[in-house]
Amino acid sequence: MSYRHRVGACLLTITTGLHAGVALAQETQSVELHAAIPGHFPPQYTLDSAGNPGGFAVDILDAVASEAGYTVRYTVFATWPEAIAALRDKQVDVIPNMGITSEREQFVRFTIPIETFPVTLFVRSATHDIRGPEDLAERRVSVVAQNAGERLVKNFPGAIPVVHASRFDPLLVLLSGRTDAVIYPRDAFISLARDAGLEDRITALKPPLLEIKRAIGVHEDNAVLQASLNKALERYLQSAEYHAVYTKWHGKAAPQWTMQQIAVAVLVPLLVLSGGIALWRYRAAKQLKTAMLGRERERQRAEEFQAIVDSSPDAMVIVDDQGSIERVNQETQRLFDYAEDELLGKPVEVLVPDRLRANHVSHRSRFNRAPRRRPMGQQIELHGRRRNGEEFPIDVNLSPVRLHERGYILAAVRDTTTYVEAERSLRAARDEAERVAAAKSRFLAAASHDLRQPLQSQSLYLSVLESRLQEPESKRIAGLIGQSLDAMSGLLDALLDISKLDTGSIEPVVTALPLQSVLEQILVDNLPHA
Length: 530
Fold this sequence. Notes:
Blueprint: H1 3-28, E1 31-38, E2 46-47, E3 53-54, H2 56-68, E4 70-77, H3 80-88, E5 94-99, E6 108-110, E7 115-124, E8 140-144, H4 148-152, E9 160-164, H5 169-175, E10 181-185, H6 186-195, E11 202-204, E12 210-219, H7 223-236, H8 240-250, H9 259-311, E13 315-319, E14 325-328, H10 330-336, H11 340-343, H12 357-369, E15 374-376, E16 382-385, E17 391-403, E18 406-415, H13 417-468, H14 472-503, H15 515-526
């Protein structure tokens, strides 16, 4: 091949590729479909709070249209007849998922079916004389215009059809008693009743009157659109997305399972459930055993603790954090003169004198905020109150304890009546001794003063007598008398010093005493009598 031919072939290939690319781009541009739907026909058509359409039929059309290269614009009509009229008059291109009937096939091309739905006879739940269409003679039956029920009611001899323009009217008319039955697509009518909170007021009779297939409807003149949607729909119905949408709006997956799959789906959960139950029973038995052992240990500890409390010589009162009495021992019952059942559950202030109860509540609350072992009322005298109202002195020691994973306060109470009385007797004896000692001191001071006067007179007389004595023996005797008077004066001074010591007038001073001079004086005093 020449150079010119090779260049021409290349240019032809490039030109052909450009034309193919332009054609492909034009083919892949999305075309908008105009769809008509009724305002509220759940689960096929719904509207959210913003007025946006939704529902099973809308989800299906959106997915299939996207698969076929279309986008969808929806127009909402108030009733089914208005939506159908819009398609017949070519105001719209499609109606998603409409029932296939012979009347509609005169002006609508339908795609392959998407689903089926039953048309059912409904009665009030309290109605028992209508069990099927054979009982509709001379009965008023509600149907909706251009709905399958309008055609079906004509097949029941004697039935009186009541045709409604709105799909909402048949429910209220039925429940008000103005009609006796309703013929309508089952799922849509149950959904209407459920939304109104009236589902329990209606009954769907079995079997259904008719099963109708649903498909996407296009105008009879648009065979190209029908073929395009059919091709996309065939692929979509085999996808997992279709199963998910079907389950979302109808509550169960499309019936695509084989018997083997069903068997596996049943047996595997059963095996897992059986294993789970066995494991649960094992763990439950283990936990139960552990719990029973724990409760038994707790019971034993409680019994041991109660035995210790009962054997205590002091009254033991166990109080919870609210001040209610939980336990008492026998000494408490004896000391306060209450039976056990008279104290349990009562506030601990029942054991406190009336005049002290208000303060005791505040003291108890303060202790609960920082509980610790300590004696109660260290700076005040405490009193308890017996059942008869008698008050008596007590000592109380407080200790925080834990029982059954809860905090309590243990109060050990001791009757101090004997101690207080002994203390009072001792205080009275001490006061009496102090009174006697004071009287003795006063007596000694007075006696020392009174005896000193004659002693001084004798000393003066002795001085006069000594001045008149001439004989040595007489002077010696007079000297001995003077020594005796000095000794007497020293004894009186000592008595006076003792009285001053007793009264605290002087402070004693410890000094060294020369015993030699004392012994010599004793020898001199007693030698003449030896």
